[in-house]
Amino acid sequence: MLIWRRSPPQTGKYRWLMMFTACFEIFWGLFDYPAEITAHSVGCAFITFRVNTLDTILTPEQSSYVVLTYTAIFGASMAIFAAHFVYRFGSIEPSFGKRFTSGWKFGLLFFFPLFYSFWWAAVVRIWFWKNPEMDEYTREVINKTVGQPIENISYIGTKFYNTDKNGTVTFNKPAWIGVCQMWFMVGTSVGCIFGFGTLCYLRLSDTLSLVSNAANNLQKQLFYALVLQTLIPLVLMHTPITIFFLCPMLNMNTNFATAFILITITLYPAVDPLPSFLIIKSYREAILDVFRALFCLKKTPSQVGLAHSMASINSFGPQFNPSVIQKRNN
């Protein structure tokens, strides 16, 4: 509601992408709490699971699909981060925006998160599904971790190496096929973030001096909010998931890292929207208005005058377009 009603007119279609992301994060937060997902790694294996208690209404097989859905949501988040940077660059570079983010192509920014979600889920279902070999390998660690036999656990996971009776260690090919696809999805997400983030910074540096103060301030606010909103998942999600995959690949035990991963991923949906609320002026003022109403506070005369001035500026002129200004200057 805040994004829909209080977004500056200059944000244009970007408000739809922000609303999509906000709804996604709300859904993730609502799903995460009752799902009670746990992640653990031991030796050369990782496992993501939930405990099937006696009073649960789900069968073990249905519970496994709860874990699968959780991983699919995580996969979608990889593409959502990238979509924001792609659109932001298209909004300040008209030639790129016309080719890749205008018209029906704007819908691709919503399609790729869904595509990554199904792709991540397919990898998990095909390569990381529960099997007797993983049951035996993780039986002891599961019993120590949650005090439950493996039969009471619904999980997905795999181990990266196999050891035969003679002690010969070989690659577990299905695990590596699956994890390589996940690395590709994580890598493309990070690549888009840093690549288009750098291009946004360079383009803004060239154009901010050519536009009005109102458009200038809005572009800077959106960019700074986007940078912080991307640093948050990089710290809370990309880095932990890299540790979670990399340590079993190197046959390292990571009990501490596993606990850290659970905390950071749980925090992400609650923390990620904060930069937009605190940096973008219209959202910040709307939140302050709510607190003023709750505590029966009044705006000062200077705040009323500033709000009136900003409303007048926002209602003047078309959406910011650097190419128009550059043509006029030429």
Describe the 3D structure.
This protein is mainly alpha-helical. It has a single domain (2-329), classed as Rhopdopsin 7-helix transmembrane proteins (Up-down Bundle). It has helices at residues 2-6, 14-35, 60-92, 94-100, 108-127, 132-146, 173-207, 213-249, 255-271, 274-279, 281-294, 301-314, 322-329, and strands at 38-42, 45-51, 153-159, 161-163, 169-171. The strands form 2 sheets. It has a 3-stranded antiparallel β-sheet. A two-stranded antiparallel sheet has the order 4-5. Helix 2 (14-35) packs antiparallel against helix 3 (60-92), helix 3 runs parallel beside helix 7 and helix 7 packs antiparallel against helix 8. The longest helix has 37 residues, at 213-249. It comes from Caenorhabditis brenneri (Nematode worm). One of its GO terms (biological process) is olfactory behavior. Keywords: Membrane, Transmembrane, Transmembrane helix.
List keywords for this structure.
330 residues; two-stranded antiparallel ribbon; Rhopdopsin 7-helix transmembrane proteins; single chain; 71% helix; disordered C terminus; 13 helices; mainly alpha; globular; 3-stranded antiparallel sheet
Number of strands: 5
Determine and state the CATH class.
Mainly Alpha
Q: How are the strands of the biggest sheet laid out side by side?
A: 1-2-3
As a whole number of angstroms, the C-alpha radius of gyration is 24 Å
Shape: globular
CATH topology annotation = Rhopdopsin 7-helix transmembrane proteins
H/E element order: HHEEHHHHEEEHHHHHHH
**Averaged pLDDT:** 78
- First-residue to last-residue Cα separation: 41 Å
The portion of residues assigned to helices is over 70%
Instruction: Output the structural class.
Output: mainly alpha
How many separate structural domains? 1
SS summary, helix count: 13
Give the percentage of residues in beta strands: 5-15%
Low-confidence stretches: 301-330
What is the makeup of the main sheet?
3 strands, antiparallel
CATH architecture: Up-down Bundle
